[in-house]
Predict the 3D structure of the following.
Amino acid sequence: ETGVTQTPRHLVMGMTNKKSLKCEQHLGHNAMYWYKQSAKKPLELMFVYNFKEQTENNSVPSRFSPECPNSSHLFLHLHTLQPEDSALYLCASRDISGSNEKLFFGSGTQLSVL
Amino acid sequence: SQQGEEDPQALSIQEGENATMNCSYKTSINNLQWYRQNSGRGLVHLILIRSNEREKHSGRLRVTLDTSKKSSSLLITASRAADTASYFCATGLLSGGATNKLIFGTGTLLAVQP
């Protein structure tokens, strides 16, 4: 248990659906991240939030919409996805105010787009 | 182009043997971290080495960093079947004087045969 919880663990959706991924961290961290992991590709950084403010959008298509209502919660809203968006979506958090620079990851949401 | 690349892509060894994985990167870094991922799960931080350090140990792990060659290696000694996982290096990039994001490599899939 890393202190970062992602729900749901698995999600199957059609291309016309709208769904949301949720991430919650219980570590008191102030930075949260979304990464995408596709088969045989490096982890792709999607979004970074520091103190609830988005500081990084790595050219992610607008069909992915992040939301960070507070430092403990991070959402990824999905709409009109494509089959190539099928992947493991990983949330991570860390404390950027200290010297500890390691990320704590959730178990991920395995997304399949049909 | 990706920041980090691990070599080899896959490694199969017998229990008790040592496993060495290498990571090369392209740009200047603040630190380099190694993570482990069991199949379909999130990543777990193993060890961090700063750009002004050359070697670091943690239990059965030994990490080296050569900033002149922009490369790092992870050595796992006396491997166990439970070490079977994917291993990723991640480079911490400076932004505004602090590490703002981690860029991951492609990973090495390690299989330890009992």
Summary: The radius of gyration of chain A is 13 Å. The mean pLDDT of chain A is 92.
